[in-house]
Amino acid sequence: MMTNRNSHLLTAMAAFLVLFSLGCGGSDAAVLPDGALPPDAAVPPDAAVPPDGALPPDAAVSPDGAVLPDDAAVIPDATVSPDDAAVTDTDAGTDAGANGGLPTDCTGLDDFTPCFVVTAPDRDYDICVNEVCVSPGCGDATCNTPGPHFPLADTNQRLCYDDHAEMTCPSEGADFYGQDAQYGWDVTNDSTVRFARDTTTVSTNPVVTDNVTGLMWQGCAAGLTDASCATGTVATYTWADALLYCDGLSYGGYTDWRLPDEYELDSIVDVGKDAPSIDTPAFPATPSNHFWTSASLSGSPSIAWYVSFSAGDVQSFDKSSTYYVRCVRGGPTPQPRRFTRDTSVSGYPVVADSTTGLEWQGCTAGWMGDDCTSDDTTVTGDTFTWQNALSHCGNLSWAGHSDWRLPNRKELRSIVDNHLASPSIDTTAFPATPSYGFWSSSSFAWLQIGAWLVYFSDGSVANPPKVGPTNYARCVRGGH
After folding, report:
1. Total structural domains within the chain
2. DSSP 3-state assignment of 329?
3. Residues 416-427, mean pLDDT to the nearest whole number
4. Of 308, 334, 360, which residue is a domain's last?
5. pLDDT computed for residue 98 by the predictor
6. What's the chain's Rg over C-alpha atoms?
7. Is 239 a domain residue?
């Protein structure tokens, strides 16, 4: 069970000082060489512990440093029964009839192929995962979606930062070159073209189409309606009721809504903003708080993943908690075998991702060999400060390529396999991956001394300081 991260006081200097003085923890905790403890993400008891220095991952604070409400103490007048739909499974039992021609056996079928399975309670959204027909939200990690099924969206981080503040974006070869704002879709596209908000088809039930991922979103958080989401009372639900709400939702002229998985919900996080960390013209009146996903935590079926729109964290908590909901529809697009590991350049493996089009360094930085067990003597150590991780990837020559870079937060989170833990990654494609934190190229917009980190102990996303603690890195190329 996680402790409540929102109880941490987050002032910039206090947080920074506390992070360097952490030294407590259970006697059986797996501790990094520097003696650091992880953020209190809910991981299986024997999970490896992330590196030192993570700011409280939830970072539920306002820009002026005020602590936002406690996990369970969300907007005081919130209710659990929105006006636009009741919490009932309106299709319960209907799947037991004709399957509409959908397969019941996924043998030989790609992940995300629509299929047919009867569950209790029953839901419309059934897909193939690892050649088994599952209904995401079944209650444990076996039916979690295996990754994104859509083109990866960029982060919308359009400013550059040094290790503590905003800076003019550096030129190639300069310190801090290669960060998030210097690569990707955002470099050549204005932020206003990402989302299309439709408030005319059904004026009280606006919908938002993501022009990058192709997903369509409920234009107001559950409980709110009208063009600006100013009518009604925002609602919160337990995890089970959130699943039923989306499955039974009739909204905007559509009835095929579902609770998003964490890859889908994370796709609309705006890493360039906080409180709320979302495009507010597209998604007005979004609470700066936690929204449920359909995914359960591996090894802990009583815990589910959420995305926090206070700062953009991806974390997990007990399913009995009441959080906010935004439903999604669209897709899925069947995905063939995702990762292909290429060892044709001996000692320098690469991994091609057919879903995102990215190519990954096949070993954690600092290691090499077809099985990633040989020390790369050209690299000093195997963990880095954020600045050094940027520099390492920017200067890397690997498998005949020299256009490597440090991945942004969403790229790095895309290779998490949330069926697994310690490490939460496909170890056939990425062998010898440490169950610790890996740097991304994305800075923490609210407190620029921090940068986003993905923990491969469980897949959580947090924001430790850039200076002081060292973490792992894995470089990437392509996709921009």
Report:
1. 2
2. strand
3. 96
4. 334
5. 55
6. 21
7. yes
